[in-house]
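Task 17 of the worksheet. Students: predict the tertiary structure of the chain below and write it out as structure tokens. Keep your answer in the requested format; marks are given for formatting as well as content.
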Amino acid sequence: MTKGKRNQKEAGYEIKTFPVPFTLEVFKENISISTNNLSLTSKEIIIKKAINFHSQGNITEAARYYQHLINQGFKDHKIFNDYGVILKALGKLKKAELYICKAIEINPDFAEAHYSLGNILRDQKKLKNAEISTRKAIELKPSFAEAHYSLGNILRDQKKLRNAEISTRKAIELKPGF
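Model answer:
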């Protein structure tokens, strides 16, 4: 354990990591973005920092970078989705829903955004709409084990236990040990 992590642990901080739903390889274009509070010069660097903060569990800083990209007019479905996921983690479900819906508006075929929306709707107890969104994610990406598992949970919440079991078994089939 590094000295910094040890000091954080001793101070009562808990370090959490979160998966980031996409990799940096998808961003090849290097466009300068003027920044006020951030001393970065290219969107690729800003995206990389946002992803790094997100994956390290520093969602406050990640949110700041994602919001900066959005404020600068950067319209990428993955950025909107990731920012929505962070907002969900912060308990800001309505705002998270808006950003996820924007990701879907930008790219209606982005399965991860439909999955994210399904999770947000489930947390809001909008189970029918959560089911629709999650089924759309599975339709777009049939091998999406997490979406099958989430659908199983949504169906269980709706007392559709046989279908819930089928979805959960499908998730395990796709990702053994899940």
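Marker's comment: Residues 93-106 form the longest helix (14 residues). The CA atoms of residues 88 and 97 lie 8 Å apart.
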